[in-house]
Amino acid sequence: MANKPSRWIALLLLAIAGVYLVLAYQLPEFPYAIIDSDVLPKGLGFLLIILSVVLFATAKEETAEEKEKRTIPKNDLVILLITAVAIFIYISLLEVLGFLLTTILFLLFLPTVLGYRKYGVTVAVAFIFSGVMYYSFTYLLNITLPQGIMPF
């Protein structure tokens, strides 16, 4: 099993699925709901368990070429780390600054980190996408998004 990284990944995913299912079973049940709020999380948890078992069962020996493909260049690791930190900051500032402002800032920053250099398109997408999502959730679906420092 030491030569089969897919099996280690499958075991890790199986453990994550187990914890996820334990948490999914702690969701409250509503008495008058036909399809309750816990159906999707439980279904996804069981799907992850099934896929983990399939991955474990279909693991094969890794060739030297596949080992070489697994090495990640240092530049890509830096970009991955910056992206993870940006997502964490986005989540942390969502309540403070609000959905609209935080999403615009996130969508302005991340494409630049990933190497996209058409700044006009980036600005247009950031503002239009964030505005459409905010309008759709707030006014069409009546779902309140974090307002933050914005007066609306």
TrEMBL record:
Transmembrane portions of the chain: 40-57, 78-109, 121-141
Organismal lineage: Bacteria, Bacillati, Bacillota, Bacilli, Bacillales
Family annotation (Pfam families): TctB
Swiss-Prot/TrEMBL keywords: Membrane, Transmembrane, Transmembrane helix
Membrane as UniProt keyword: yes
Domain DUF1468: 8-146
Protein name: Tricarboxylate transport protein TctB
Superkingdom of origin: Bacteria
Keyword match Transferase: no
InterPro entries listed in its UniProt record: DUF1468
